[in-house]
Amino acid sequence: PRATFLQEYQPPAYFIERTELAFDLYEDYTTVLANLHCLRNADSTADNSLFLHGEELELQSLAIDGRPLAEDEYQISDKGLLIHRVPEQFELSIGTRILPQDNASLEGLYKSNKMFCTQCEAEGFRKITYYLDRPDVMSEFTVTIEAEQARYPVLLSNGNAIHEESLANGRHRVRWHDPHPKPSYLFALVAGDLHYIEDHFHTMGGREVCLRIFVEAKDLGKCQHAMDSLKKSMRWDEEVYGREYDLDIFNIVAVDDFNMGAMENKSLNIFNSSCVLCSPETTTDAGFQTVEAIVAHEYFHNWSGNRVTCRDWFQLSLKEGFTVFRDAEFSADMGSRTVKRVADATVLRSHQFAEDAGPMAHPVRPESFIEISNFYTLTVYEKGAEVVRMIHTLLGAEAFRRGSDLYFERHDGQAVTCEDFVRAMEDASGVDLTQFRRWYSQAGTPLVTVRDDYDAEAERYTLTVTQSCPPTPGQPHKEPMLIPLAMGLLGEAGNLPLKLAGQAPDAETADNTSTVLLLSEPEQHFVFEQVRERPVPSLLRGFSAPVRLDYNYSRAELCALMSRDDDGFVRWDAAQQLALSVLDEIQQQLTDGQEPSVDPLYLDACASLLADTSLDPALVAEMLRLPTESYLAELAAAEGADVELIHRAREALETALAQHAESQWLDAYRRSVVNAPYAPVAEQIAARSLRNLSLYYLACAKAQHIGLAQAQYAAATNMTDRLAALRVISQRGTQQQSDEALDSFYRDWQHDSLVINQWLQLQSAMPGEGALARVRSLMDHEAFDLRNPNKVRALVAGFSNNNSLQFHRPDGAGYAFLAEVIEQLNTRNPQIASRLLNPLTRWRNYRPDRGELMKAQLERLAALPDLSVDVYEVVSKSLQ
Ligand code: B3K
Ligand code: ZN
User: Fold this and answer.
1) Residues 407-417: pLDDT tens digits?
2) How many Å lie between the centroid of ligand 2 and the Cα of residue 264?
3) Nearest 5°: CA angle at 635, between 629 and 641?
4) Deepest of 612, 654, 709, 778, by most Cβ within 10 A of its Cβ?
5) Beta strands 483-491 and 515-519: pairing type?
6) What CATH number does residue 128 fall under?
7) What ipTM does the predicted assembly reach?
8) How many domains does the structure of the chain reveal?
9) Is the dihedral of CA 174, 178, 179, 182 positive or negative?
10) How far apart are the CA of 509 and the centre of ligand 1, in A?
């Protein structure tokens, strides 16, 4: 397989001004007739041949301006159709036949349960018809769908329905027209026996938009939260970004078989049912929050993605990074800002940093790819969002808004680049982002090292800050980045006013206890004056940049930050660092053959945190959650992670924390009970979060506390509390307690596939040597289906990502199991197969005994005869 390079970008030689598609849907095949109104790009110097992308298509007819083409006028390959000579302007008619019912890749047109649906981003449209399947070719679409009326009463596509008719033979036909020119990746079609809930939204411009969520009849009762989230998103985008919706209808459809969360097709968003359906009885708090965030994300794409789209797929972060930033701010506004920030920073640090340090590391704007599907990554999405956030920090909210207004106005209807986005931000603010642009082109996580010096006599405090960035594949040497480092100084009585030497003490900053230092050089000094006591530096407030930070805090200093700093993120981070430092010490003790003893400083700090009822319980819960084993393994990568040692140390700390603060846990458990009827609101979510964490620690402290979990399980009226209790029973109870609870849960919920996915996922992470055997036997369970990505993610990715100790069994059986599943999915659904590879790509992070076994599985996969391009790219790069 060949790589595509950003450097090789060429504008299209032809445009398709209008696209008319006619679909005839049948049970054993579908025909697609495409009429493409083509026009030569006057700026192109290419010759007058036309290449159209097309894969897995059966060509049935081909004509230009009504004249059928002779066989020597064109050529077909497995990549597409080459027409040797075409005029300047012409109508191209292409008839193809496709087999959606056999399409297991869930890309292009396919069937999920009994409905037809599409997924075209990034390059799936070419599985529907021959086309210029690239985002810089934007076209006005008219789509006619014909199907059997009884089986498929609902026929949907983008834009407005402009014609409907019943046909004599039990079939019917609906025609849709989308007035907004769009790239093919935003095309969508749905046909099925669907039902909907409907609502309306009055836009700021006074238009009335009809909102519908289409689902199977049995799921109608689970749509309200998504509808509420949609309306909140529409309002928020008007208020915060001045963006109004631009059509009279907005539809969401839920489908069960979907490779990712959802897709922002113009006015016809298609969602994984797990990301739209919810009810208190079946969905956890986290599930409710996911639905809200994804509904918002896809809605926000209407502007950041659809009205202004990407020139090419290297620019993916232009729409994804920006839209993730937008949805994160939306979620922060809807719930607890600090908790949202902590959650995002956790994902970034535990997963994106790992990606940035691994064999698939790439810049936010990659320079080459073999398969674009492999680049829908945490780097493009989450780090990309951090890059936009840093621009927001550097410009300030007002100038940022001027920048986004300018960007949308200047580029409305265009397919543009990350550079265009940055330039709009610069033009609107006057801020020079020249050096900042390196965030788009350099891969790897910068390391910021801070050292300090306090001169008591001169009352001067100096920070020496250095930055560096490790080499990544293809980028041995890095230039310094522009890094906004938000910080403050903590004194005995609270945060100190900041007076930076050489900075005029103006009215606005004179009393400021927080500032943003701009790092631009490999080494810089920042001098603070009138510092009356030796402060504890509070660094990287709000996680102001996606960097690793190194400062040698003492445990006492971490305790001070944890209990008293003004910045919620720093408080959380101090608790994490304290836990890491204690875990390090325990590992050392275990290595030396000693009984682990846990620093009472840490335990006392946790106990008092837990007893402090003035704090946000959600933040307290996050502060008391220990880092995961997989994150600890990432941190230990340089020495070679020892999975058993990590596990034993973490268990020891968990037990110590559970027992030391048992009475506080019990108190927190009792006082955090929610009496009001379930609502997915911040206050209740916070209480349940602390309560369920307390339940977990109580079960760690004493076997008899399993009784609390059993009682909670029996009494639970919502899935958050029920599943949390089940998790505790299954992880900490006896075999019998665990089996009974899991069986009863299955009996109660076997009718609800999304609930059973949570049951599968919970079991994938169960401790003990039998874990792999359990996962294997669940793959044969009636509730499992290898064709459904949600089930594969729940059980298989659940096991390999969340069950560190059992996945990394010393005999390598965990790795062999994962490779087996990847082999089975390799040809059926390459995108999912490729995603599952992720844990194996980290083979260099582990001790050689495990690393070699992991590598052996990658080598076995590499040798498969029919390796998909998706799997090939990840496997081969991981072995390089
Ligand atoms: N844009 C889609 C992702 C498509 C992934 C294609 N492999 C969902 C989103 O980010 O909103
Ligand atoms: Zn997106």
Assistant:
1) 999 999 999 99
2) 7
3) 70
4) 709
5) antiparallel
6) 2.60.40.1730
7) 0.99
8) 4
9) negative
10) 42
